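At this stage, I needed to go through a protein sequence along with its fold in token form, as given directly below:
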Amino acid sequence: MANAITISRIVSSLILLLCPTLSASFYCVYVLTGITDFLDGFIARRTRTTSQLGAKIDMMADTIFVVVCLIKFLPEIRFPLWIYIWIVVVAIIKIINFILGFMVNKKISRSAQRDE
């Protein structure tokens, strides 16, 4: 059940790409997506159905949601160029950290995972 809710967060995040930014439909889907982020973990803990697979799906869903929000919001906000450069630098550092952690441990690092 919790994993299905997490997967619905991935789907709703992708639906956000189709909604006009800052429209009523965008806000509705955004709020629904946020609620699923809370519910999946709550239900998994409550029903004692937490799993490594669920944690991985949750992390993937969170990443997709953040990327979609960046895609939608960054063009709406006028930042100086140096802020965009720092966003890219931080993203590159995070990706390198994730890849190195995976290469060293042959699995997704526990620090990168969350309980559902």
